[in-house]
Write a structure and sequence with these properties.
alpha+beta; 5-stranded antiparallel sheet; disordered N terminus
């Protein structure tokens, strides 16, 4: 074989072997272990790559084992898919924490089960594919889909079927479907994006209740059967796969890389900024005050986008799991209901009560030990009647935008009996102090103006007086100069 043919054969072999060498599949019998720190380290987080997408496309996908410090003195382990440094998919994470010096191990068993163990055979996550013929774990370099394949390259399991916080271009879902995200700072509530036949909605779950805070419905009221992501956004399709609704970028920042439900309840489409090496939103469904926990549960989101405590409005919401005393009567004599004027909420109750008055709405919340707030929206068709929604928390409170939106809205908060008067007194004292301060400023302002006028008048008087004296002095010296042309009468 000639040298040219030899080099050509070697080059061809290198090109054929390159994908396998750069991104080999994780096959049956393979194990990948990550040893945890010897002692518990709060805030510890580490991701070790298992599979990495081949090619020059940026940003790249990778599959990794992620370890982070838990809250109980141990570590939590999960399998994740990364796009650059962003987690776009993660396996369900068990509450079981690994002890220090343990091992977080990923393995594909002989019977086709992909699982995470602690090294001592205790399983914390598994794919549920035992006996289905899975032979290899494969990462799609174009879409980021993590797939378990059998001998014929058929998909046995894939991460696209179980979205966790983000949707990627190429992902196709049959409805109904949903995914959830837990807030970073509060462990009890969690957010969910739910795609149903009649709408897409973002919810916050608290206790046994859920409240929506964003919705998208088809304009023609058509039923939706599928959802598909591509680089132009998320499109909803009917049973014949005809588009009926779409979420698309508001500004063109390049192809969409993912749709994300954030741990603050935000929802948006993101593009990759290659110049700065990060992801930027090309569409955001919600402003700051539209988020359920933008100001927590003890403050109101103002029109300026800042948070102001309920106490500044003369209200201190009652707190605690049971919003009434065990000895309280059915009338709720342990608490009062206070209307907070100029305030509404972004939360929508799942099952509001219709045909009730404002007073009935507030009284029903007062008697309900789980109710923390109530919103009554007047029905224009029926005098004095409207729709009543009850809430287990005072999250989502915001100032009314414009006068029109506030008409017919009445927001009530449950307070401990006796705290209402104190709050009102605080508010009255605060207002009285403001009024007194305003009067003092006005008085000092008037005094300052008068002082400035007097000073200006005195300055003008002395300047004129000095000028007049100078003129008289000149006239006396030049009294004999009349023949030369000076007119003494001018002096």
């Amino acid at each position: 074989m000639s040298p040219g043919c030899t080099w050509g054969a070697l080059l061809l072999a290198a090109l054929l072997l390159q994908p396998a060498l750069s991104s080999p599949d994780f096959r049956v019998g393979a194990r990948f272990a990550v040893r945890l720190p010897g002692a518990y380290q709060p805030g510890f987080a580490q991701r070790t790559t298992v599979l990495e997408a081949a090619g020059k496309r940026e940003p790249r996908f990778a599959a990794a084992v992620s370890v982070e410090a838990g809250t109980g003195g141990g570590y939590l382990c999960s399998l994740v898919v990364l796009l650059a440094n962003v987690t776009v998919w993660a396996s369900d994470r068990s509450d079981q924490e690994f002890a220090a010096r343990a091992v977080c191990q990923l393995e594909l068993t002989e019977d086709g089960q992909l699982r995470l163990t602690d090294g001592a055979r205790a399983v914390v996550w598994w794919s549920g594919t035992a006996g289905q013929g899975a032979k290899a774990l494969h990462l799609d370099s174009k879409t980021g889909n993590l797939r378990l394949l059998d001998d014929k390259k058929h998909t046995v399991w894939q991460s696209f079927d179980k979205p966790t916080g983000k949707l990627l271009p190429g992902q196709w879902l049959r409805l109904p479907s949903y995914f959830t995200v837990s807030p970073a700072k509060i462990s009890s509530p969690f957010y969910s994006l739910e795609l149903d036949g009649d709408k897409i909605a973002a919810y916050i779950y608290f206790g046994e209740r859920k409240y929506s805070y964003w919705e998208l419905t088809p304009s023609s009221n058509q039923a939706m059967a599928f959802a598909g992501m591509d680089e132009s956004g998320l499109t909803m399709y009917d049973g014949r796969r005809r588009p009926v609704a779409k979420i698309s970028p508001a500004v063109n920042k390049g192809p969409v890389r993912f749709l994300a439900l954030g741990d603050d309840g935000s929802l948006g489409l993101y593009a990759y900024d290659s110049r700065h090496g990060n992801f930027t939103p090309s569409y955001e469904a919600l402003a700051f005050c539209d988020l359920p926990l933008s100001c927590g549960v003890l403050a109101v989101c103002s029109l300026s986008g800042s948070c102001r405590d309920f106490a500044a409005r003369g209200v201190r919401p009652a707190q605690g799991g049971t919003l009434c005393n065990a000895t309280a009567t059915s009338s709720g004599d342990a608490h009062d209901m206070v209307e907070v004027r100029g305030v509404t909420t972004v939360l929508r109750a799942d099952s509001p009560v219709t045909n009730v008055t404002v007073q009935q709405c507030a009284d029903q919340c007062l008697r309900d030990c789980s109710c923390a707030a109530a919103l009554h929206v007047k029905d224009d068709g029926v005098a004095g009647s409207g729709v009543c929604s009850h809430y287990e928390l005072t999250a989502g409170a915001r100032e009314v935008i414009g006068g029109g939106e506030g008409q017919g809205h009445s927001y009530w908060v449950k307070v401990v009996k006796g705290s209402k008067s104190n709050c009102r007194e605080d508010e009255e004292d605060y207002n009285a102090k403001n009024e007194a301060l305003t009067k003092i400023l006005i008085i000092f302002g008037v005094v300052d103006v008068i002082g400035l006028l007097l000073f200006g008048g005195l300055c003008t008087y002395f300047v004129c007086l000095r000028g007049r004296t100078a003129d008289e002095h000149v006239c006396e010296e030049d009294g004999e100069a009349e023949a030369a042309g000076r007119d003494r009468s001018q002096c």
